[in-house]
Amino acid sequence: MEVSIIIVNYNTLALTQSCINSVFEYTLDVSFEIIVIDNNSHDGSQAILALDNRITFIESDLNLGFGKANNLGINVSKGNYVFFLNSDTYLLNDAISKLWKFCEERKNEFIGAVGCLLIGDDGQRCHSYAKLPSAFDILKSYAIAPFASNKAKQILGIDNSKNESELSFEVGYVTGADLFLHKSVLDNCGQFDSDFFMYSEEVELQWRFKSAGYKNVIINGPQIVHLEGASMKVSEKISMNKIIMIQKSLFLLITKTSSLLTYYIFRYLFAVIRIPFLILSNYSFKDKTKYLSLLFS
After folding, report:
1. Where is the Glycosyltransferase 2-like domain (predicted)?
2. 183 touches 81 (CB < 8 A)
3. Strand, coil or helix: what is 83?
């Protein structure tokens, strides 16, 4: 068995089935298995996915979040490689064989995570990679994001490499929607950190890869559609609960990748930057109170 494809499902039955079907339709040149972990869905996913004899189905009685659920898949996987694939993706070509062949041909190059240039459902490029952000990078991006979101993306190195026309190019991290790697990398660096529930867990994981000397890489050739990448519009108002979840994970990321002094300075400056946002936003009083609790926790 060469590749273990790990998909986490949470109330996305139709999307997960589409993803699974695309893998079987297009994957021709490499042996694989599909492992689906259900994160305690409430849409009837379990009963239907459990009947699909093409996959290994794992049912969790809790919503473990992204990283922990993927770790369950890692622990039962049989492949030499693992491929973490979001449920809201689907293949347009034999992407998995292309990722596998790239890694097989470069076994001596200390390759960590590999991904591709993802496509939204509108046919346009969507978020695929970024640089590993420092605490200062994150502060700068949040300081200017309300005024210049494109500049904030540039600071964080989001999808702006000058090398995208090349066969492959090194990046800080590959987005967690399509994360391909040899299992030995996880043996050497560890699995997803269970302290994260959702957001930034793939950044922290690939920070460990980089620290161990591995290269994280984007390659051209595989074609994968990521539906969320096209459906998230900048103009849409994000729920306060999602903002809090994202920023809690950012705080955790800083604790994992920086010194304690850097963390405390970051938290102070982050609060200074975000209070004007809170004052000027049109969130409810209840939401603003929740956000203040986060800033000063």
Report:
1. 4-108
2. yes
3. strand
> Helices (H), strands (E): how many in the chain?
12, 12
| Whether 231 contacts 121, CB under 8 Å | yes
Rounded distance between C-alpha atoms, residue 97 and residue 170, angstroms: 20
Q: Which of 68-77, 234-243, 252-261, 278-287 has the lowest mean pLDDT?
A: 234-243
Please give the structure tokens belonging to residue 39: 């994160």
What is the DSSP-derived secondary structure letter of residue 107? Answer: T
CB 97 within 8 A of CB 28: yes
pLDDT confidence bin for 147, thresholds 50/70/90: low
**Residue 213 identity:** G
Among residues 19, 94, 87, the alpha carbon closest in space to that of 54 is found at 19
In this prediction, residues 27-45 reach a mean pLDDT of 95
- Asked if residue 26 has pLDDT above 80, the reply is yes
Can you read off the two tokens belonging to residue 167?
């066969």
Residue-wise DSSP of 169-233: EEESEE-TTEEEEEHHHHHHH-S--TT-SSSSHHHHHHHHHHHTT-EEEEESS--EEEHHHHH--
Question: What strand order describes the sheet that includes 56-60?
Answer: 56-60, 32-39, 3-9, 81-85, 178-182, 111-116, 215-219, 168-171
Token representation of residue 32:
């694989």
